[in-house]
Amino acid sequence: MPRNEPEIAPQDVLKANIEFHSALAASYDRDQPHFRPENRALVSAKLRRYAEEVGNRVMVDLGCGTGFMVQLALPWFRTIYGFDVTHAMISQIGLSSGRVVICQADTGFIPVQSGVADLVTANTFLHHLYDLRPTVAEAWRVLKNGGVFYSEEDPNFYFWDALKDLPATQPGLLQREIDAVQKTDEIVEDTCGVAASTVRIAEFQKMIRGGMKPEELKNLFEDVGFSSVNIQPYWFLGQSSVHHDQSAEDAQTVDNYLRRVLPLSIPFFKYLRIEARK
Known about the structure:
With 278 residues, the protein is α/β, with parallel strands linked by helices.
């Protein structure tokens, strides 16, 4: 959540991310929720669809971490480039396929030729940046005409804003969501030994700026040059509990209803999904 922080510079955010993700690297694949089988299946299906729609020659993954997107893309793309600033994360990525190229680099300037990528991904990544524009501009540059940028799991400002002023103690499901929003930095400090202040800076767009507004993201992508930008909120409050405690069908029913009443329901969705075409 937004807090009174000392003035933060771009290099502070970069340094904090390296420290934060170096501490998480060894257990990242085991602990992060997007590695759950149901999410891996959903993302894999999307990558397959993009490969069929726009081409499967080259995919570029920005903020590749330990290779979540890289590994899922292997069945569908011939060559995959991954870029990340944290050596401890990218050292976890398997290279045995011979079709994966990994580079430790700031995503604001990546060593890839212009116009070569069919797909650029940035899953669970954009909210770690101080300034999104250089990375979004690089995505546009390396994409071919007709290529697609795709990202997920960046924080919806309207969800974070709705929760920030609620009392700290709530019943059941709502308490878990409040803790996830208000106490992530403290939880990581307790479990991983990374200072809470470092976690907040590393999660800059979420914990310092309070989330990302879809209308501002749309303006940014269009200003950089993308011709078609579709930003959708997703993952409603309590979706995991409905999916696992009731059924996937019940979760889909709730999701369908909330989408029918957008934009009124936008504070109920935790994340934003971005699809932009060059």
